Amino acid sequence: MSIWEYANPVKFMQTSGWLLPWVFGATVLTLVPGLVWGFFFTPLAEEFGATVKVIYVHVPAATLAINIWVMMLVTSLIWLIRRHHVSALAAKAAAPIGMVMTLIALITGALWGQPMWGTWWEWDPRLTSFLILFLFYLGYMALWEAIENPDTAADLTGVLCLVGSVFAVLSRYAAIFWNQGLHQGSTLSLDSEEHISDVYWQPLVLSIVGFGLLFVTLLLLRTRTEIRSRRLKALEQRERMA
Amino acid sequence: MTLLSVETLTVSRGGLAVLEGVGFSLEAGRALVLRGPNGIGKTTLLRTLAGLQPPLAGTISMPPEAMAYAAHADGLKATLSVRENLAFWAAIYETDTVEAALDQMNLRALEHRAAMSLSAGQKRRLGLARLLVTGRPVWVLDEPTVSLDAASVALFAAAVRAHLASGGAALMATHIDLGLEEAEILDLAPFKARPPEEGGHRGAFDHDFDGAFL
Amino acid sequence: MIALLTRDLRLAIRAGGGFGLGLAFFLIVVTLVPFGVGPQGDILARIASGILWLGALLACLLSLDRIFALDYEDGSLDLLATAPIPLEAVVTVKALAHWITTGLPLVLAAPLFAVLLHLPGPAYLWLEVSLLLGTPALSVLGTFGAALTVGLKRGGLLLSLLVLPLYVPTLIFGAELVRRGAEGMAIEVPLTMLAGITAATIALVPFASAAAIRVNLR
Predict the structure, then answer these.
(1) DSSP 8-class letter at A76
(2) Across the interface, do B73 and C74 touch by the CB < 8 Å criterion?
(3) Is pTM beyond 0.95 here?
(4) Which member of C144, C169, C193 has the closest CB to residue A163?
(5) Taking the domains of chain C in order of start, what are their residue ranges?
(6) Nearest to C161 among A142, A167, A177 (CB)
(7) What DSSP assignment string belongs to A145-198?
(8) In whole angstroms, what is the distance from residue B31 CA to residue C124 CA?
(9) Does the residue B132 lie in any domain?
(10) What does the alpha-carbon distance between residue A63 and residue A58 come to, in Å, rounded to a whole number?
């Protein structure tokens, strides 16, 4: 029994079909309490006001935005090296989710930044990096859409993801050099001196787990759809050949 | 001497197997003509042999740097002259046979004309002259006689014959009888790929999905 | 390889506009900017480095889709892929030819255009250095984008979407180098970063471009 068995589309369909309700249940059980707790049962910080509540969406979305790209990088590599179709389709399925998460992070960031810094947008390194990441997601998805042959599309987007990852990291450091920003450092440091107080921290962790599970749910769902559409394409192609 | 041998080769177009179990070998001094209806996969087979696409299965053995490939398109640059076009490929293949090729394909008179001012048949002749300057023993030709008139076909057949006589070999997909007595004919129809239900190549999305889809 | 380079340069010259078009575009960008931001010399001087870099970048982008498209259409890309030179070398030579026909003229003409934008005196040296170091990376990355989109009918817009984000680090360090040069600040960091990015790009990206071409020819 090896992990690569799940690279077989049929096996993946069976397993993911069985898994999906459970993951969905877990999502509801973490995301709803996390958000409700965060929004309604945390004290108002006097210097931040109610706007601070947006962190329960902003931070998880931002965390996911980056990690989804990393996940796409890994699955693209698996496709390029081992030629497992499910891996390529998972990368394809993840991209729109990552794009939306990046967008949510940017929008909630603007909503939070306006009362905090007095501006909707600032060319701060962190904000700038997210904007660039958003562009990378757009380019990646556009390339998938543009290419007819699914295997060619998987190969080319895989190569783009590889090169894009390197340049996304480079852009991040270039942006830091370019403009030392006003965005606060990471809120989730393990160092208890630095991280925000437990009252806010606990619901935040729950929200992050909830968002992570939401991503897994959506990813499984979308990958299943992609596999079905690939299967349809293969059937159509056979039909035309016969 | 065997210049090219192919065993149980399966080639694919757009991810689907089109030909399977193709096998043949090509000796020095021999020509092999591929026959088969349109869409059977002649071009796909030739592109696979040329190394432009990977085979799904099977082996291709050939000495290194032995093959010269000529596709449907001649790869001519319209703004370069006939001589410049040939000289470029001669430089790429590091040979100096431009003069001989010009003479052999009867292009001497057109030498300084820009390729864009040539007729379709003249372009094709220039494309075939490119093969001569490669100096490679195995020619892999896709429809080499398209848009050639009778005289040019004879010219081409003579060039192939001279190539074979000098120890070369040629593999071509063509419908025209070149009058080459050295040529064998390989009909590709029996190698048409079977659907997966009948034991043909099974792609990742050809498995039985019914159970998983319910 | 030299044969391929001379062929590409010869084609660029004979096709007409190979050298001139990018430059003309650059000039238009530089002309339009003052119309947009107003004729005040001090404002123009402040943004000159950015405008010049942006103009160079867009002028370079303009000619990218032709790098492989013509060779793909007339079949020579197939023939080059089966020729005895490795595809990585073909891709590198193509990038070099693109740089000579678009990047180099921009580097040479940039000081003239800088005059129009009131670029401060000390910045001229750094403008030249930054363009000379940065534009090769633009050509190599552009070749990568062109390789990804070579099989597509209307790849032009997609090409820009794919390539422009890759230009961000080069643009940041290139323009920063000129800006710091103009203000007499320390230039070591952007200088080394710009050179480093270009060197790494030239060394590594051709492998990705060649892989993309192989996939597209399949």
Answers:
(1) H
(2) yes
(3) no
(4) C144
(5) 2-217
(6) A142
(7) HH-SSHHHHHHHHHHHHHHHHHHHHHHHHHHHHH----S---S--SSTTTSPPH
(8) 65
(9) yes
(10) 9
